[in-house]
Write a structure and sequence with these properties.
This protein is about 50% helix and about 15% strand. The protein is an alpha/beta fold and about 400 residues long. β1, α2 (about 70-75) and β2 form a beta-alpha-beta unit.
Amino acid sequence: MVALKTAFWICAFLVFYTYLGYGMLLWLLVRLKRIVRGKAERRALPTDDTELPEVTFMVCAYNEQDVVDMKMKDIHQLDYPKDKLHITWVTDGSSDDTNERLKAYPDVEIIFTPERKGKTAALNHGLSMVKSPITVMTDANTMVNTGAIKEIVRLMQDPKVACVAGEKRVMARHEGQVAAEGEGLYWKYESALKRMDSELYSAMGAAGELNAIRTVLYDPMPENALLDDFVMSMEMVDKGYKIAYTSDAYAMEYGSADLQEEAKRKRRIAAGGLQSCWWLRKMMNPFRQPVVAFQFVSHRVLRWSITPFALMAFIPINIALVMMKAGTIYTVSWILQIAFYLAALCGYLLEQKGNKSKLLYVPYYFLFINMNIFAGIPYLYSHRGGGTWEKAKRG
């Protein structure tokens, strides 16, 4: 019984710490840092636009003919000197009319090869040809706010910042779109963690929806990388640089059309998370960069590898302790687990009928994310030789 009780409390701690405890501890550490050091001074942009650096705005796209015009309209409204902004589309493997539509825009450089190798290969290809000191990357189906580039350049005034992670904002096309609303809620919490991570020392990774790097620091990645944006940015942290997070540069996109489409994304992200944890395992060593190791393990490694297994193991361990009459606390814990899983089931049943409950889709979406961690294991095995993947349809 002692072994079961020990396992119970280890699982309970891992689940609590990963999903709530780390955020609470991070909040406390950030406020202590502010007390000790004060708030960091806000760096300013040069007042003269001629002193701004040249920037390449890069879009990696595969068969995106339907969004080309919308994306180009969005790019053209960016508040940055036109003579300093270079627009590049990398369309490796595109077999539709993406390239033909892009040819209507004389300010666009098209980088194309007919073979589709995946986004990482496209990044390697595109970035090898960039000459500007800063490269901003975004997805074809995301819209970026007008002041995004100037905010990114402002943050890069700090020579220790090698990468800037913009905020991802998820939109639902209609009321009750559970996939989009659940994803949006998840990203609000994730954004809060990134903001605090960045203030403590460095954000733990950048998302492909909107990020920027110092071009010279980019090292080509293996083409089978599933989370290219995360690996790319974290390797810069491993070199001693920082990822700055900002909500003043943001990308907006519609959430997945439904939970089946969202599951495609979550499986790929879960597989990429496991792959990244292994590739970046040296960053878990607390003797190399102690704060980075603490943030990386707490924010990423536990969530992508250990804690989902602890969450599942928590069920049979708790049942065994209840059956052995180990104590009231274990009975209460089991009752709370039953209530949580019943709430998730009700959320699922409501979603199947096209309805939603904000109270119920939180446990439902939480379990949905964690179940796809397990689905990511065979996905990683099946994609170990290449980086191509099927896109999820947006709402």
